[in-house]
């Protein structure tokens, strides 16, 4: 039996989730001079931006005309590094329980942690890709069947088939166009669900748009070497030689263990008030996982919710602390 490691130190704030909202929450906690720990289930910080879209541009973050997702995460990591929060990676939180002494006991699959307050910034919760439903698909997943794209240049000079009809499929096809030898986008319907402007760019590109087709067969020993695709209307079959296949059918997300922590939930999120407080005093939520009337799920919104959660958590921990912080431009801990 594996014994759980126990960190006896009681942190002021423990952040569950190390995506963009979690990283900015950690920075702001450092700015308020409280001890901070981040617990992240993935092997790296950055959430979906690092895991799913590292090479995609983001256009709606204030101050950036455009920024690569991974560059945004790298900037956030550099920003928070000033305060050196404790970071626990590849650790899944299974339970959060408030003890009689008002300290939270946080149990993960690897250990037990203690905190005076908890801020949940877990994004959409646990997520995994919708996979290609084909009996032979699984055996190619460690070869050239991909559900994530972490390095566009790894497809340089290759014949790439992208399967799907949403924003991700269209975006990846367009981004691969100048890098790959040939890009074929296969969608089971004639119309795409992607943004209209992206579809216009797709139709004007050199991408081979192939609709309405589905995958009928995968061919190859250790790698996919050829696809057989079938027209959904005429039932015509065609063969397509490929070096790589990227499947973009979207993702399945769930709150996972969070739904068992006694938190009030609504529409797949954690219900909070204007102070980002949950129904359990001392537990806060920010970012996409937090919900309230009129909530808009954007990175920019999460960046605004993070300081609200931290400042109220600081006031919860220490009722004598000021809720309203000073301006960072005049704080001693920012002077070199």
From TrEMBL:
UniProt keywords, alphabetically: FAD, Flavoprotein, NADP, Oxidoreductase
Species the sequence originates in: Brevibacillus thermoruber
Reaction catalysed by this enzyme: 2 reduced [2Fe-2S]-[ferredoxin] + NADP(+) + H(+) = 2 oxidized [2Fe-2S]-[ferredoxin] + NADPH
Subunit and partners: Homodimer.
Residue stretches making up the FAD/NAD(P)-binding domain: 11-306
Listed Gene3D superfamilies: FAD/NAD(P)-binding domain (3.50.50.60)
EC number(s) on file: 1.18.1.2
Pfam families: Pyr_redox_2
Cofactor: FAD
Protein's name according to its UniProt entry: Ferredoxin--NADP reductase
A GO MF term: flavin adenine dinucleotide binding
Keyword hit for Repeat: no
């Amino acid at each position: 039996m594996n014994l759980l490691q126990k960190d006896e130190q009681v942190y002021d704030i423990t952040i569950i989730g190390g995506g963009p909202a979690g990283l900015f929450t950690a920075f702001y906690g450092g700015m308020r001079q409280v001890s901070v720990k981040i617990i992240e289930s993935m092997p790296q910080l950055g959430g979906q931006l690092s895991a799913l879209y590292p090479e995609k541009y983001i256009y709606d973050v204030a101050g950036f005309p455009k920024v690569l997702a991974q560059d945004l995460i790298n900037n956030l990591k550099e920003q928070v590094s000033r305060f050196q929060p404790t970071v626990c990676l590849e650790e899944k939180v299974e339970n959060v329980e408030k003890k009689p002494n008002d300290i939270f006991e946080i149990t993960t699959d690897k250990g037990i942690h203690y905190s005076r307050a908890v801020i949940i910034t877990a994004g959409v919760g646990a997520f995994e890709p919708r996979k290609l439903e084909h009996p032979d698909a699984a055996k190619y997943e460690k070869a050239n069947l991909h559900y994530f794209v972490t390095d566009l240049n790894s497809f340089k000079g290759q014949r790439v088939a992208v399967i799907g009809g949403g924003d991700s499929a269209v975006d990846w096809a367009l981004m691969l166009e100048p890098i790959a030898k040939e890009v074929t986008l296969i969608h089971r319907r004639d119309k795409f669900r992607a943004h209209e402007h992206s579809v216009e760019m797709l139709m004007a590109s050199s991408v081979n748009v192939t609709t309405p087709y589905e995958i009928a067969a995968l061919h190859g020993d250790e790698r996919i070497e050829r696809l057989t695709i079938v027209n959904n209307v005429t039932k015509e079959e065609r063969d397509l030689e490929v070096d790589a296949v990227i499947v973009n059918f979207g993702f399945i997300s769930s709150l996972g263990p969070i739904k068992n922590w006694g938190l009030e939930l609504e529409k797949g999120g954690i219900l909070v008030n204007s102070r980002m407080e949950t129904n359990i005093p001392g537990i806060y939520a920010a970012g996409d996982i937090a919900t309230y009337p009129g909530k808009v799920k954007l990175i920019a919104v999460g960046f605004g919710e993070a300081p609200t959660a931290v400042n109220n958590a600081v006031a919860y921990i220490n009722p004598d602390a000021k809720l309203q912080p000073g301006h960072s431009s005049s704080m001693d801990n920012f002077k070199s």
